[in-house]
Structures are given as C-alpha cells and as structure tokens.
Design goal:
The structure holds 2 protein chains of 2 kinds.
Chain A (H helix, E strand, L loop, with lengths): L12 H5 L4 E7 L2 E7 L5 H9 L17 E4 L2 E4 L12 E3 L12 H9 L8 H14 L5 H7 L11 H17 L1
Parallel strand pairs in A: 1-5
Antiparallel strand pairs in A: 1-2, 3-4, 3-5
Chain B lengths: L15 H5 L15 E7 L5 E7 L1 H5 L3 E6 L6 E2 L6 E2 L5 E2 L5 E7 L2 H9 L2 E6 L6 H4 L28 E9 L2 H7 L2 E9 L11 E6 L6 E5 L4 H12 L6 E5 L14 H9 L7 E4 L2 H7 L5 E10 L5 E13 L5 H9 L10 E10 L13 H19 L3 H8 L18 H12 L14 E13 L5 E9 L4 E5 L8 H13 L6 E3 L2 E2 L14 H27 L6 H9 L4 E9 L20 E13 L5 E11 L6 H20 L29 E7 L21 H13 L10 H16 L1
Parallel strand pairs in B: 1-14, 12-13, 16-17, 20-21, 25-26
Antiparallel strand pairs in B: 1-7, 2-6, 2-8, 3-7, 4-5, 9-17, 10-15, 11-12, 11-14, 13-22, 15-16, 18-24, 19-20, 19-23, 24-25
Classes of the chains: A alpha+beta, B alpha+beta.
Chain lengths: 177, 753
C-alpha cells in the first residue's frame, strides 16, 4: 500500500525504466559508493533490496514505527520516508556501521546486557535513535529518553529494559569522555 | 542436589549480540537465488459469491510468471477444521481474503499485475457480530461445514455458524442459584485486537518438480505443526516438506499456522521450481493474517452472604472471524478456565466459537484467558461490592489453594495464587487511599487488582538432542523457536547446568525440520517446561554416555572433549536424546469439560493497578502497575522480568486503547500504526514485578511457564481500578477516554435523578 506513490502501476514501464536512473554518490557506513538508483526507490528498499544490508528493518513502511531508523547526515530519519533521488552527497549510517572497530558501541553493549532486545526486530532502529539522542544530549532524563524513543515501537519489552539500557549507555559514554 | 550454577541466574541473552549488531537474519530479510516476488489480490467484500475472475490482462504484463486463483490450488487447510482455501474458492468470507496471487520478476511488477485482475462479486448477507451470526435462521457463512475434514475434538454447535461448542457441567447451577443469597448477571465485551509483531508476515517457498519436495523458509513458531498442516492440505508425505526458520521478529500467536505460507506454497507450484517470496506489508498483516478473538461474555453468579461462591454460569460468544483457524481450541482452552480460579460447587459453561465475516481470529498470547479474565475479575469486584466485602477478602475466601479439587475435576498442586494475591495487593498498598496531593483538581484516583490461572496445551511432546564434539562444544537440537521470549538462553542454561560447561560452549542448531527432532509448538507458554525437560534429559543422557567412556578410560576427571577424542577420535561426537510428554495429561471430556489432568501445569498471577482518571476528558492515566507471577522456578530471573514487563505493556494497550475497528462493510478502519494505537514509551507507568516461586513437581527445576500470563489480568486490574476511582463500572474494552467520559456522564445523570 505504501509503495503506491512510488510504484509503477501502468503497463509498459519496464522498457522506460532505464531512462530514469540517477547516479548518486553516498557514504554508507564510512565507505564511499557511487550508485545508479531509481529516484523513487525508498532509502529503506535501496539498503535492503539493492545494496543488500538488511540490519535496517521494515516494520510498517509508512514512517509510523521507527524500525528503519538510520542516521542521515548525522540525524535520525525513518529510511522509509526518504527517496533515493534525494541522497546525492549524503552520509548514511546504519546499524552495521554503528560500531567502530571490534568493540560494540556503548549503546549496543548496554542493550545487550540489560535485555533491551527481545525479538530484536525494533532493536536496530532503537539503537540508531538512541545513538542520535546521546550525541545531542549526554545526560538525558528518563522523560527525555521516553520522548526521544516515542516514535520507535516495540511490542516485546514494555520499554523498561530499553530505557534502562539507554541510561546505562549514557553513563558509560560520559565516563569515557 | 549440587548447587545450581546457571539455572536461576540472571544470565544475559545469548542471542543479544547478533540482534544489536543487525546480523540476525529474520524471515523478512531473506533473499533466495533466482527468486520471484509474489503479491496478492484481496477480497473487497465481506461475504460474496465470486461470479467471475479475469486474469487475462495480468498474465500478459511483461515480467509476470504466474497468475493463480482458487481453481489452480484446490486445497484447504486448518488446524482442526479444514475450512480455509489457499485462495478463495467460489466465494469470499471477509474483506482481506486472498482471492488471486501473482508471481513476477519484482514486487512492483507483481503489484501492477494484481491491479489488472478483475473480479465480479455478488454480495451475500454478512455478519459482524458473533451473537447475530448464530441467531436461528442466520445465513450460513460455511454452507459445507458438515462435510469439512475435522479433528475429533470438534463439537458442532446447536445454532447456525457455530463451529465449536465447549461445555462444562459441574453440579447443578439452577439449584446453586436457589441456594444463594445474592445472584448477579452481567455482560462483558472485548473487541478484536491485533498482534502487531514488529516483523510483518512473509514466507519464501520452493517446489522441486523432480522430487516433489516443498521447502518453506518462514518465521513460524510452530514449524512441525505447520508442516503437518501443509502435508494434510497437499496430501503429501511429511518427509516431502521442509520448514526452515530464520529469526522471528515477534509473533504473540500470529505466526503459528498457515497464513502467508499458503500463498507462497501455492505460487511455488506455478513457477517452474523458482523460489517465491511473498511479503505482507503492514496493512496486509493487519487485515489478512489473524486477530485476537472478540468475545462477548455473560456471567451469572450466586453467592452466600458470607462471600462463599455457590454457583456460576458463563456463556461466551467467541468471534472466530471468517475461518476456524485456532478458534476451536481457543474456545476450549479459553472457556474452560472462564469461571476463574475459584472453588465453585456448581458450574456451567457454554463457549461458542462463531463464524462471522470479519478477519480471521486465532491464537493470541493468553489463548482466551485475557478475554474471560476481563469479565470474571470485574464480576468478582461487582459481587464483592454488593456483598459489602473487601474484594481481596472475597477472593481469598474462594481462591484455589494446594490440594483443591477444581470444578473440572482435577486435584490441583503447586498453587501459588494466594501468594501472588497477597504480594501484589501489598505492593500496590491495597486498603490505603491513593496519594492525591500532587494531582490537579478533577482527577480521581483508584486502585484495583485481578488474578488468573492459565492452563497450557496438554498433552504435548517435545524432543531434543544434545551433541558434544571432541572440542567439548555443545550443540542443542531443539524445535523451540526463538521468537524473542529467550528460549535460546533458557535451554542453553539448562544444558550448561546439566553438563557443567560454560555458557560460551553451548549453542543452538538453526531450526530446520529436516534436521531437528520433533516439537509440538512454541506456544501456550509450554517451552521452558516441555522443551526444558527434554533438553535436560538429553543433556543427562549425553553426560551418562561420556561418564561410561571416562570410566572405561579409568579417568573420570578428564574434560569431555578429551574423553571423546580418546574414545572416538577427533571427529567423534556424542549425542544424548531426550523427550518429554506430560503422559497423564488428558483432553477435556466433550460433554462435561472434565479432565483429571487438563493441563501439564497452571500459571498463576495477580496484577494490581493504580489509576488517575481525568473527570473532564475521561482519560485514564496509569500511576503504576504491580505484577506478581508464580513461575514455579525462575530459570532466568532477568528474562522473567522481561516477559512480565512486555506482557504488562501489551495488557495496558488492550485495556486503554487497542481495538481493531471494523466498519459495517467489514473493512478494518485502522490497519496502520498511525491509527492503531500501540503502547509507546510515553504510555507506560512505573512497573513493578514480583516473582513467586511455587515449584511444579514435574517442571525442570520446578519451572512452570510465563509467556502468556503477563497480559491476562491486566485489563481487569485496570478496569477494577477505574471503577474504584469513579464509583461506576465499564463493561466493555478498551477504556478509551470517550467511553470513560460517557460512563462518568451517565453516572452523574443517574445521581441527579
């Protein structure tokens, strides 16, 4: 249903498709890439279906659940609401790029230890949103955390362990400074 | 018994690292070489005859490989009643029923082809209320019900559209009511809600035309059951079917039987051996998989002046939706404990699962108990109020305790219910007034609680193998699906405990029905108990074999790997086998509802709520929730808390704002997360969890189950708290601001009169 705006619903399109591909340069998880994209292709689909990095999850495809959250130029966005055509020059970080080096990022480590992930499907989005929050706000209150994560739905945890994990990650990151 | 090293410890989830790094591969992530993409045309009518389907234009679209309708796949499936076609055959029974399917080179092409299919319908009388659908003279939704293949547990109903009739008969309720000092009857309503596992449904299937083998990759929490269902539908031998499970992004009951699987398999028979991926997007998942049963519950109770329960009569209409799915067993397992966890001499229960023209209802965490608890536990408070008794004293006088003979004829053991009641009410400060000093004017505060007993699917079997290799590494082969509940961690703890190896040396084999021994299902809170026992036995079996080897070597102090290397060589492996069935478990008698062992174990819980209700807006704000659960033995306390908190959140959603709204044309009006209000991080109060351990004699280390009860008493506890705050009671869920507002207005008008 969500793809209606982006999808071809009339016959005869396949022949014309090649004409509208657009060349873009992006940085994905620190690696520069040149891609030929259909401008209407959603960033979420570009990542999962075209590039083949599936850590970013699809929960709704309409910007309501936050499972597909990635960092676009340092800001958290629902990747299901971004068209590939707008991405020339963009810096994109997905869950696969969150940890730098062999160690887990502090938010990953905190979610791992505190039971922030159950089925784990909302987890990549939660983690990206948390990373964005802690970059802006080193000492978030519980209210800040609840507000920041209110667009990231989770059906398993009841959020309590997630909030605890964010608090722990914030603490670890402050100590490391 | 040696001190436990792993069991009972708050061990970090073993699957967490894969999940926090994005490496975990879910069903929705799978890509198969050379695969085609499937899309579905869904019915737009709630109940209609299909006059004509024109697929001509769709077939001609470049890139389309197959367009199929019910004619191409003449099979039906269903767990206990084989009533659901893979694709509609001749008629449709709900808006959202799959009518035709397309396989194409990509998803866009498949969707474009779907849009080119033309269907002509002729509408029939449609029913959207289970009470209406079973009135005498109602049009049959399934004309061929009598000729469907059915399991022998099915008891057809006395009225139209009833697909299952559950009966429980104990004593004589009529004489019980005559003996009573007070008789009260009330009607309670629970609407359909959605599971909304964060991962939408998808399946991949491939058919090998040479061997006839059907392979399905799907996140399904009962792979062996769906395998059987598939075999029965296709008329294939079980070894011709293979299910492979990737990670599952939640389920809560929605991912247990054939849904999108049926479409993928149907298409795979028409793609010349190419694999097919069928994904449902979110709206499709809302409408075309399953919902929780709506329920209309009538309870009539008779009590003595001193608070002794004498008689209870319960009549439940379960809205099954358009197809039977799990409705027969929800009707049995949900109706059976509906009179509540109380000693009652005279009991009569009639549960009716009724076909309607709504989306299909099926298993949902709690399997009917949340719906009946909403009714029964509010009813208990209403009785207490009329008796002038404290609701806690009233319950304590009547609740099940160890050794009680229940109204279904089972002698109960390991009943931790009373302890949960006392602990939860103590923690909420039952009997003390809420502190309203910080509340603005117009806020009314109240407290309430509710308790439940939840049975599990019985009898069932779990089988496991534990392999130890010559490096001492342990692999568990078990058919329990990691749906987020933490079974990988729990089963690894049990294996590590019995083998005395490090948790790091234990892993679980990926789930593949061609490689893994049988397990009934990852449902009904049964895994820790059944599979836990099976893995424990398998680990002991492996340990004993190695002990024998060590004895023959004359050195029992050697590590496992060393023993295996010396006896079997570097490639040697020792395999222990274990199986567990609750042998004395019996299905309930179809006439009386009685069974000496209706459930392998029972889960007991009490939850308490404190609420602040805004008189002007009707908004209910939760101040805090307390949940006390008897888990038998907490194999992993961290995981227990996680399960309870998650359950609470789901129960709070069901109590305050979740409802799948279906209009008078049978259309779901809110099939998105924008319109279907799931609890967010802003909606939840402070949650306190209390673990009660009343060990089960047959559970591994005394453990029972915990997956489902977390949400079962929650709405009733909140409902009782709202009634306590307002002095007026609401009998229908959810407790939306509008509903609460009008209840307040009504009670004010009544007070003025």
């Amino acid at each position: 249903m969500r793809r209606l705006a982006a999808q071809r619903t009339f016959p005869g399109w396949p022949e014309e498709r090649g004409d509208i591909k657009k060349k873009i340069h992006i940085t994905l998880n620190g690696e520069e890439r040149t891609l030929e994209v259909f401008p209407y292709r959603l960033l979420l689909d570009q990542l999962r279906d075209e590039i083949g990095v599936t850590g970013t999850k699809e929960g709704c495809g309409t910007g309501d659940c936050g499972a597909c959250t990635v960092l676009l130029n340092g800001k958290p966005v629902n990747s299901c609401l971004v068209f590939s055509g707008e991405l020339d020059g963009a810096d994109i970080v997905t869950i696969e790029g969150l940890k730098a080096g062999p160690e887990l990022h502090p938010v990953q480590e905190a979610f791992r230890q505190d039971g922030g992930a159950q089925c784990g499907y909302c987890t990549p989005g939660m983690l990206m949103m948390t990373a964005a929050l802690l970059k802006e706000n080193e000492q978030p209150t519980e209210e800040d955390i609840r507000f920041a994560l209110s667009g990231n739905l989770c059906r398993c945890t009841g959020y309590a362990k997630i909030i605890q994990a964010v608090q722990r990650a914030a603490e670890v990151m402050r100590e490391r400074k | 018994m040696p001190e436990l090293k792993f069991v009972g410890k708050p061990i970090t989830r073993v699957d967490a690292e894969e999940k926090v790094t994005g490496r975990a591969i879910y069903g929705y992530d799978l890509v198969l070489p050379n695969m085609l993409y499937g899309k579905v045309l869904f019915s737009t009518r709630p109940h209609a005859v299909i006059k004509r389907i024109d697929t001509e234009k769709a077939r001609k679209l470049p890139g389309v490989h197959a367009v199929i309708t019910g004619k191409d796949v003449p099979w039906t499936h269903g767990e206990t009643i084989k009533d659901m076609p893979f694709l509609a055959q001749g008629k449709v029974r709900f808006v959202g029923e799959p009518v035709a399917a397309v396989a194409a080179v990509d998803e866009d092409t498949a969707q474009a082809a779907v849009a080119l299919i033309d269907v002509e319908y002729e509408d029939l009388q449609a029913y959207f209320s289970p009470e209406e659908a079973c009135k005498p003279g109602a049009t049959l939704i399934h004309e061929d019900y009598d000729s469907y293949r059915k399991s022998d547990i099915i008891v057809p109903g006395p009225l139209p559209n009833i697909l299952e009739h559950f009966k429980l008969r104990t004593g004589d309720v009529e004489s019980g009511f005559r003996e009573s000092d007070l008789v009260l009857e009330q009607r309670y309503v629970v609407p359909p809600i959605a599971h909304t596992a964060m991962e939408p449904h998808s399946a991949h299937a491939q058919v090998d035309p040479e061997s006839g083998k059907v392979t399905v990759w799907v996140a399904n929490d009962a792979p062996f059951r769906v395998l059987t269902e598939t075999a029965e539908a296709l008329g294939l031998a079980k070894e011709k079917i293979r299910f492979i499970n990737p990670y599952q992004g939640g389920g809560f009951g929605s991912k247990g039987a054939m849904k999108v699987e049926a479409i993928a398999i149907a298409l795979a028979y028409h793609t010349n051996s190419r694999p097919v991926r069928v994904k449902f997007n979110r709206p499709e998942t809302f409408v075309s998989t399953i919902t929780r049963h709506e329920a209309i519950v009538y309870i009539k109770s008779g009590v003595k002046r001193d608070g002794t329960l004498v008689a209870r009569e319960v009549r439940i209409y379960w809205g099954a939706g358009a197809y039977a799915e799990k409705s027969p067993t929800v009707c049995i397992k949900g109706s059976h404990p509906s009179p509540g966890p109380y000693r009652i001499p005279h009991v009569k229960v009639d549960g009716y699962a009724v076909y309607t023209n709504k989306p299909v209802a099926g298993a949902f965490r709690g399997y009917g108990v949340p719906q009946t608890a909403w009714a029964c536990e509010q009813h208990m408070d209403e009785l207490a109020a009329r008796l002038g008794m404290d609701p806690l004293d009233f319950r304590l006088k009547n609740v099940f305790v160890d050794g009680d003979l229940s109204y279904w004829g089972e002698r109960l053991v390991a009943v931790g219910l009373k302890e949960t009641l006392l602990k939860a009410t103590e923690a909420i400060g039952w009997g003390k007034k809420s502190d309203a000093s910080n509340q603005p004017k117009g806020i009314r505060m109240g407290k309430g609680f509710a308790c439940i007993a939840k049975p599990t699917r019985t009898p069932t079997t779990s089988t496991a193998a534990v392999q130890i290799d010559s490096l001492g590494k342990v692999t568990i082969l078990a058919g329990t699906v990691e749906i987020g509940q933490g079974c990988t961690t729990i089963l690894s703890q049990i294996a590590a405990e019995e083998l005395r190896v490090s948790m790091d040396d234990v892993s679980m084999h990926p789930l593949d029905t061609d490689a893994i021994p049988y397990d009934a299902s990852t449902t009904s809170s049964r895994s820790t108990y059944h599979m836990g026992n099976a893995v424990k036995r398998a680990a002991i079996h492996a340990r004993e074999q190695i002990a024998e080897m060590a004895a023959s070597l004359g050195d029992t102090s050697l590590p496992y790997g060393e023993i295996i290397r010396r006896k079997l060589g570097a490639e040697g492996t020792v395999t222990g086998n274990g199986s567990y069935t609750f042998e004395i478990g019996k299905n309930v008698d179809p006439e009386t509802g009685h069974s000496e062992h209706a459930s392998a174990f029972y889960m007991y819980a009490t939850q308490a709520a404190e609420v602040a209700v805004d008189e002007e807006t009707g908004r209910v704000r939760l101040v805090r929730m307390v949940a006390a659960h008897d888990v038998g033995k907490a194999i992993n306390p961290l995981n227990c808390v996680a399960q309870i908190e998650g359950g609470l959140a789901m129960g709070i959603g069901a109590a305050l704002h979740e409802e799948l709204v279906i209009d008078d044309g049978g259309r779901v009006r809110n099939p998105s997360f924008l319109d279907y209000h799931l609890v967010t991080s802003l909606d939840l109060p402070k949650m306190e969890t209390i673990i009660v351990e009343c060990p089960d004699p047959n559970g591994p280390y005394g453990a029972k189950g915990l997956g489902e009860p977390g949400l079962a008493p929650t709405p009733a506890a909140i409902g009782n708290a709202v009634a306590n705050a307002l002095g007026t009671r609401i009998h229908e869920l959810p407790l939306s601001p509008e509903r609460v507002f009008w209840a307040i207005q009504k009670s004010r008008e009544a007070a003025i009169r």
